[in-house]
Amino acid sequence: xxxxxxxxxxxxxxxxxxxxxxxxxxxxxxxxxxxxxxxxxxxxxxxxxxxxxxxxxxxxxxxxxxxxxxxxxxxxxxxxxxxxxxxxxxxxxxxxxxxxxxxxxxxxxxxxxxxxxxxxxxxxxxxxxxxxxxxxxxxxxxxxxxxxxxxxxxxxxxxxxxxxxxxxxxxxxxxxxxxxxxxx
Length: 184
Fold this sequence. Notes:
The chain is mostly beta strands. It has no helices and 19 strands. Strand 13 and strand 14 form a beta hairpin.
């Protein structure tokens, strides 16, 4: 592994040669990354890989079926949102372990973005101003919030579901964003 001395402590290259890695998630054994597909295939050839925390070659986890904008992992598997080709084509997926077929948890999502998980649920935001959740093994998605101002990132704790509202551009003036919380 190459080491860089630009700053102390030293930083290590854990994996290299990945095509546009973006969304990241960790579990006890590895690092998950989304790998962006090709524009020629409308990014429908995107994928997820797992790299051992100590470094090593990436292991294929699943086809992502579109650009990934949210990714999370825990002991039960890996969860992600994928954009789709048009508004309303976004999907939420889960896979138990690398190489297993992905399970579809939700469809018909408009620009899914942030994603977070807790013990029982998967949470995500959408570009049409909504915040949703679904059980980790599927079921009917529940809308937690509507009419949000471009929600993006999301985080959960036992006390609250928190997300960012990034605000909108209004001509040359940017309107302020906000942090929103749904207390439990």
